[in-house]
Amino acid sequence: MFSPGIKYCLSLSILMWLFTGILVGQHEMALGISPGTDISEEVQTYYDSLFQTSNYQINGTLNQGKYKTGKGHPYFGEMNWRPGILYVENHNISNPAVRYDLLNDCLLSQNFTLAGSHVININKEFVRSFRLDGHTFRFLDVFQDENSGMEAGYYESAFRSESEIWVKREKYFAESSQGGGEYVYKNTIYIKGGDTWHKITNKKSLLKAFPGRENDLKSYIKKFGVVVRHGNVDQLVELVKYIENQ
């Protein structure tokens, strides 16, 4: 009567219904609540404790992002939901399912409630920093150097010492003349020294960021084959460490 796909969905729905009923029944017994009593608030709290949902994680808006179909995806790293750490005030909040949307510069969280699964666009004013796949991102909105050309948003903190290296990671959708297209990475690197920000686009801009150290920079670049214009973050981090240790 039913196709295998429909039978699977019906079976899964029945199992979820039974599982929820068992959880509610056990929770009622644990609290000494009579069957039939309205315990929706208690069940929500119990459910949240089981599946690690949190008010910290859902401070934001329902994500309405629409993405074009093409090669690749608009997210940082992998496409699948991954665990991350959200830094909220003085708290570190573990979130089991987040994505960083580089197309729209927004942090997304997959949240589960009794009403179902929802994707939340997390409020940047609430989560000022987060860590994903070993990379730390911070929301920057105040720049002492008005000539930096930097806009408010999440930036990766790649290196912080006497100098700082910040990376604006982005993706854009490149249309194809044959139809469709692909998501393309774009990294913009900034080096901060004091209150001055330098956008690093080529060797000349890098030399400008370290006045008086031009010869050391040129020597290092030649020796290790640093290609500045391609935005190789790891190479620039090692270069700045070298300069600061001289």
Helix and strand topology:
Elements: H1 4-31, H2 40-51, E1 60-62, E2 82-88, E3 91-101, E4 106-113, E5 116-122, E6 129-132, E7 135-140, E8 153-160, E9 163-175, E10 181-193, E11 196-200, H3 203-209, H4 214-224, H5 233-244
Antiparallel strand pairs: 1-5, 2-3, 2-6, 3-4, 4-5, 6-7, 7-8, 8-9, 9-10, 10-11
Notes on the protein architecture:
This protein is of the alpha+beta class and 246 residues long. Among the domains are: 1-51; 202-246, no CATH class. It contains 5 helices and 11 strands; from the N terminus they run ααβββββββββββααα. Strands 1-5-4-3-2-6-7-8-9-10-11 form an 11-stranded antiparallel beta sheet. The longest helix has 28 residues, at 4-31. The radius of gyration is 24 Å and the shape is globular. 18% of the residues are buried. The model is unreliable at 4-33 and 43-57 (pLDDT under 50).
Order of adjacent strands in the largest pleated sheet: 1-5-4-3-2-6-7-8-9-10-11
**Low-pLDDT segments, ≥5 res:** 4-33, 43-57
Into which percentage range does the β-strand content fall?
Answer: 25-35%
End-to-end distance: 77 Å
Largest sheet: 11 strands, antiparallel
Level of helix content?
A: 25-40%
Q: How many strands in all?
A: 11
Oligomer: single chain
The secondary-structure element order is HHEEEEEEEEEEEHHH
